[in-house]
Amino acid sequence: MIVRLLYFIHSLNRMRILKRVSQLFLRREGKTFHSTMWTKDFLFKVHPSVSQAVAQNKPVVALESTIITHGMPYPHNLSTAKEVEAIVRDEGATPATVGVIEGEICVGLSSEELEHLARSKSPLKVSRRDLPYVISK
């Protein structure tokens, strides 16, 4: 019981830290979305629609790009990705498909980037542990 309580407290503190870091990150991003096509901070490339939605405290739905790269063959993967993004928009949220393209973690993809991932012949399946390797290559 004590172990569970300690774990809960640890998780709660971790969540507070993550929330604060994300607020600081997003506040910076929210100020610059209109000046360029993409906003870039360190290794993240944030689409303007995602940046704007966060700055305006609107809902954002993160979508994995795995279904595009490993789930279905082309062109079904691309049409499914676009369909899912359209559903998210219809429900009043901003879709933020996440993927790694040319060493950059992209949060929110353009149509061209979705197409690029959909047509990739040998994409890597990336998890958190693989990010340093993939970004460096």
From TrEMBL:
The keyword Lyase applies. Keywords: Glycosidase, Hydrolase, Lyase, Manganese, Metal-binding. InterPro entries: Indigdn_synthA-like, PsuG. The keyword DNA damage does not apply. Coiled coil: none annotated. This is Pseudouridine-5'-phosphate glycosidase.
